[in-house]
């Protein structure tokens, strides 16, 4: 009898995720989750197209939206931590069909992002080794990323901690150097001041439509912040650590993005052609460091960007693996993907995601890469779709919680500005999803190919949603029937 009890206990242990992520891991995952090539390279093109003021306004609006999404997610994750945050919450509080579509949407988005980061890693390494083969670097980096994820969840956490530490340190140094240049201390005694905010029609270039165009760029830059919701299911004390990490989000957005773009806009005129380039040699960060007289600026920034790429790849594999595992446990993916090894790692889901990421990467380097471009385009708008799903899940969660007679005092963390927060987030996400490629419809002749490529992700999402709904005959869950179970 005791042997049976022991075996049962061991089996239970092997079917649970390990709560090994400490508060410092979650905080740094939160801090570094959205810092990547979107800031280091993409911020330049945002300033070029909308002017420094337009870029600032776009990033502030999207930043406020992300803040509301993240505080809503923190309320959900602190009360009900799960590694399948988006699919699980949508399944329980809205409709299982929506949960199914959001889950597969999220998995696909990050699996393709993994391929994109592998492609980016080869470009970064060719800065130093121009004649080396692409497959060599992609192979090395996928082994590193896979190794961090298969060792233990703590391996992912430690890897992301140090990757994020390097990114955060770089941005702090950049902002300090930039401010010193602006007031004249590191610019030969010549204060730059605000003159670049008054060049031509700065600070707002192109008006409202230009700002709207930057919304999508800003949104891509912030994607990754929601991974803290996925990681909640493997944190030691989610009711404390998730809210703590979430509170830093607003200040991170203010400091790392808004202040960095403000510094770039002051130092480099928005009319500078090189701002719209993705070349590391002329990244806005590299240009500012060079202006400050710092030697080897391009090599240093290249190393930092490599760190950002590895961090994004690490997070991509972690997030997509966990969402696949969670869907398998919910019966929304093949059952074998819900198996864990003795260290609490969903190995089948990890292997499948790695293979898909590698196949997508191979599609990018063989032939003309057309297949990969279409795969990437289909994933383009997915970030805003699952953010929209989080906003609606949070709105419905709170409504159901109150409808079933629960007190809000029972919530470990309560999002501020409810219901304004999730409603605003929903509206902004919907505007960006529908208007992401408005330029395709403005010319004399509609750019149908461009429009199809940009909006491809929407019909794919709708097919999964309504296809599952039709096959499984699912219905919207009444508020009185929503389940508030907590994953142990």
Key terms:
disordered N terminus, 19 helices, about 0% strand, about 500 residues, Amino acid/polyamine transporter I, mainly alpha
Radius of gyration: 23 Å
Tell me the strand percentage band.
under 5%
The counted number of beta strands is: 0
CATH class: Mainly Alpha
Would you tell me the structural class of the helices and strands? mainly alpha
Q: Tell me the domain tally.
A: 1
Count of separate DSSP helical elements: 19
Largest sheet: none
**Which architecture per CATH?**
Up-down Bundle
Distance between the termini: 25 Å
> What's the shape?
globular
Average pLDDT level: 81
Find the CATH superfamily. Answer: Amino acid/polyamine transporter I
List unreliable stretches of 5+ residues: 1-14
The helical percent reads 55-70%
By CATH, the topology is Amino acid/polyamine transporter I
The SSE order reads: HHHHHHHHHHHHHHHHHHH
